[in-house]
Amino acid sequence: MRETRAGITSAISGCYQCGGADARWHGKNALALAARHHDSTGHTTWCEQVMSVRYGPGMGDDTPAAAAPAPATSN
């Protein structure tokens, strides 16, 4: 039987020339926006991505279960 899986992925990115170390883009499209900004301007961009995945039920530890991913939205 297949166990359930919950995961969270968060990402932020920015442009060193336009904003320095401050994040300019947030969410699932942050990496793509940084790449697109670099391609169109030639600026050096940066990305940070964090991913947490849990498989199956809790194993008695005190770590809270990951929240369900948010539904996709279009802009």
Write the layout of secondary structure elements.
Layout: E1 5-15, H1 16-19, E2 25-26, H2 30-41, E3 45-55
Antiparallel strand pairs: 1-2, 1-3
Strand content: 25-35%
Unreliable parts: none
Determine the mean pLDDT: 81
* Strand order in the sheet with the most strands: 2-1-3
H/E series, N to C?
A: EHEHE
Number of helices, counting only DSSP H or I runs of 4 residues or more: 2
Task: Look at the helices and sheets and give the structural class.
Answer: alpha+beta
- Gross morphology is elongated
- Largest β sheet strand count, sense and barrel closure: 3 strands, antiparallel
What is the structure about, briefly put?
The protein is α+β, with helices and mostly antiparallel strands and 75 residues long. The chain has 2 helices and 3 strands. The protein has helices at residues 16-19, 30-41, and strands spanning 5-15, 25-26, 45-55.
Describe this structure in words.
This protein is α+β, with helices and mostly antiparallel strands and 75 residues long. It contains two helices and three strands; from the N terminus they run βαβαβ. Strands 2-1-3 form a three-stranded antiparallel β-sheet. Helices cover 21% and strands 32% of the residues. The protein is elongated, with a radius of gyration of 16 Å.
Question: Which features characterize this protein?
Answer:
75 residues, alpha+beta, 3-stranded antiparallel beta sheet, 2 helices, 3 strands, 21% helix, 32% strand, elongated
